[in-house]
């Protein structure tokens, strides 16, 4: 059975109760597969094969509607936070607020000012958003060079977002959430945790081959390499998404990480 996230952020828990560890977040409009009905909770699996428990009330559970939504929702929110309004004007009432990475369906309306787009929400409600807060979902890679640049810039767009265990939005994001969202928003699903897993597109490469957009793995941590010895990551120690260096002469050098790299991963390995 398929379902669609109908809350702004749907926490996925390790166990089916609210005080259990949050292992991931499903953002608005993302489609999941229900593996087990647990009463008020359901056990679900995401498109990137991550599993967890969430409250049933936070999903639209309907195989037909979920399948239709998956076909229609071809756009994503790229603004940190985007209000969906009842009318195409800033004075209008807010219907919903969506975070970066949420999926949305566009409705054609040639009468609109180009500054606005008409959208359909998961529940079928119609609203409006600024056109430059939304872009078409990327489903194919551009050139390797363009992808590397784009994935780094996407990761950097989360700078200063607070660290949140299991998070993957500007409200709070963890290390693997940052890297997986940066790749997802550029059309690639990678493994959600800080390790290289067979069956996903990231392959281990020698450190000497590292390039912009490749991934650095540490014990229990992951970062994205930016080039010139710099990397961006969401650090529990740093409390937010920040930039650090592998060069011991740089002021933002972190010896604990620079000396504990366990692997380098690349989509192009």
Radius of gyration: 19 Å
Q: Count the helices. How many?
A: 4
Mean pLDDT: 96
Corresponding CATH architecture of the largest domain: Alpha-Beta Complex
Tell how many strands the DSSP assignment holds.
Answer: 22
CATH superfamily of the largest domain: endopeptidase domain like (from Nostoc punctiforme)
Q: Could you give the order of the helices and strands?
A: EEEEEEEHEEEEEEEHEEHEEEEEHE
Helix coverage percent:
10-25%
Strand order of the largest sheet: 17-22-18-19-20-21
Quick one: biggest sheet? 6 strands, antiparallel
> Which CATH first-tier class of the largest domain would you pick?
Alpha Beta
Low confidence ranges: none
Q: What structural class should be given to the helix and strand makeup?
A: mainly beta
What global shape is seen? globular
CATH topology of the largest domain: endopeptidase fold (from Nostoc punctiforme)
Protein model, in words:
- With about 270 residues, the protein is mainly β.
- The chain folds into three domains: about 1-70, Roll (SH3 type barrels), CATH 2.30.30.40; about 80-135, Roll (SH3 type barrels); about 145-265, Alpha-Beta Complex (endopeptidase fold (from Nostoc punctiforme)).
- Helices cover about 15% and strands about 40% of the residues.
- The protein has four helices and 22 strands.
- The strands form six sheets. It has a six-stranded antiparallel sheet.
- A hairpin with a 5-residue loop joins β5 and β6.
- α2 (about 145-155) crosses α3 (about 175-185).
- The longest helix has 13 residues, at about 145-155.
- The radius of gyration is 19 Å and the shape is globular.
